[in-house]
Amino acid sequence: xxxSYTTLLGLVLPVTGELTNTWGSAVxxxxxxxVEDAIAGSQSQSVTSADWTLTxxxxxxxxxxxxxxxxxxxxxxxxxxxSISGTTLTVSAVTSGQIQVGQTIxxxxxxxxxxxxxxxxxxxxxxxxxxxxxxxxxxxxxxxIYAPQLSKMYVVINNCSDSSLVYISGGTSSSHTTGVxxxxxxxxxxxxxxxxxxxxKVAGGGAGATGGGTDQIFYQNGLNVTTNYxxxxxxxxxxxxxxxxxxxxxxxxxxxxxxxxx
Length: 262
Fold this sequence. Notes:
By secondary structure, the chain is mostly beta strands. About 5% of the residues lie in helices and about 40% in strands. It has 1 helix and 21 strands. The radius of gyration is 22 Å and the shape is elongated. About 25% of the residues are buried.
């Protein structure tokens, strides 16, 4: 009878009398190494051009879904100079990142929640007809880490070099749950919650307060809101004021959320 594997982490369960003279190899590759992966293993993946679906393989084999730490990298968004006439977005220069379909754009005079529908290079089609003279435009997009192996915890780190959010979701690219959002430059400890059939945040997820050494004391925020922002539904937000919202920029507060400036 061949070996079987545990249901959650796929660790080898050798059968008595099996693996004569190969026991050490099986334990090292299909048990010891996989336990280490689940406790301290990490994987980085660029999400510049696409979401990240964790690999899952048969029991006893390394895969991304069992790793403890997931690190999203890249720059899914972009900053560029452009103008809009009707639904045509014309780009004159790209400062950083990569323009792509699905991004939400913001800037002086840009209609809130405008998204890029199609196009390439310097000419794109956007979702809302408008007239915008040449200005600096910021494009952002939400990326998902799809974790089909649900019964475990992850430390998710959003190391993207722009302001795009990253979510970890228990679904797949065609059907996903809401998941947990992690702001750029921050990390979160998340766990699968069988009651809600979704990941929940255990700790972290936003910009952390810092101080001298390892002190967690001082939270700092900017003085100007320069791009459109929507507070996540059913979440509250806080800002230390005074703070100024630039002309043409919109902060959207959903009905079940509160934004407090103190």
